[in-house]
Amino acid sequence: MTRAHHAVVEDQFGPRAKAYVESAVHAGGEDLDALEAVVRRVAPVRALDLGTGGGHVAYRMARHARKVTASDLSGEMLAAVAATARTRALDNIETMEAPAERLPFPDAAFDFLGCRYSAHHWHDFERGMREARRVLARGATAVVIDAYSPGSPLLDTHLQAVELLRDPSHVRDYTAAEWAGALVRSGFQMRTGRTWRIRMDFDVWISRMRTPAVHVQAIRALQAAASAEVRDHFAIEADGSFMLDVMMVEAIAA
After folding, report:
1. Residues forming a β-bridge with 189
2. 218 DSSP β-pair partners
3. How far, in Å, CA of 234 to CA of 96, rounded?
4. What are the counts of helices (DSSP H) followed by strands (DSSP E) for the chain?
5. How far is CA 80 from CA 22, 76, 109, 182, 253, in A?
6. Quick check: 34 and 248 in contact, CB under 8 A?
7. Is the C or the N end of the chain the one with fewer CB within 10 Å?
8. What is the set of domains in the chain, with CATH numbers?
9. Neighbouring-strand partners of residue 95
């Protein structure tokens, strides 16, 4: 029986909620620190964590915003986030189950939006961006963080292939140009951008998603057969660990 993409995402992430709450890659990093610095500067009244996953953006937002809404497609993820918020005494966090493409909030409901490591799973990337703009008040700040494709077809094909083998809910790691175009078309004005390189420990990377052994073998086969250009860019190590390109964009709802 075939399943809709949203069901694939739910099946992938719901049972792994605890792993994402505890994930070191997701729970920290320069990108998350940089996002928090923007939230601290803005001090929003009502902030939205779009595609909250393990809730790490929501937890950081809650230190500086009056109220935070953590939204996600996965009810199991949201239950884990709510439980973690309670243990941390973050009583200004609420959760809402919804896909990014159909947010159940009125227009201009928020004055800040954070979105981290979520958009590459969305069924309709640009529709999600338009919804993000719709629920933001004019002049509000949005910060988006995600893995991005280097753009070269050679490197792009390898990246999307290993991502999809590892996680069938993966749609696309977009290029910086694709991100910029989607944001502008959705009604945002670009303000600043930053990039990082993050080392993905292969065993942790596949274990977090419980990637089937046959897919792990296929990923390793692709890595072994990769050209020198691919191996050099992603700094593929003997055990399969590699470097992932990550970007952060700060934009304004125009």
Report:
1. 252
2. none
3. 36
4. 12, 7
5. 10, 6, 25, 31, 30
6. yes
7. N
8. 5-147+171-198+245-253 (3.40.50.150)
9. 70
Rounded Cα distance, 163 and 148, in Å: 12
Cβ neighbour number for residue 226 with a 10 Å cutoff: 19
Q: What averages of pLDDT result for each successive group of 10 residues across the chain (254 residues)?
A: 58 56 66 96 98 95 98 94 96 97 98 97 97 98 98 97 97 97 97 96 94 98 98 98 98 98
Extract the tokens encoding 197.
């390189």
Residue 242: CA count within 13 A, CB half-sphere: 23
Tens of pLDDT, residue by residue over 197-220, are: 999 999 999 998 999 999 999 999
C-alpha 120/C-alpha 170 separation (Å) is 6
Distance, CA of 126 to chain centre: 15
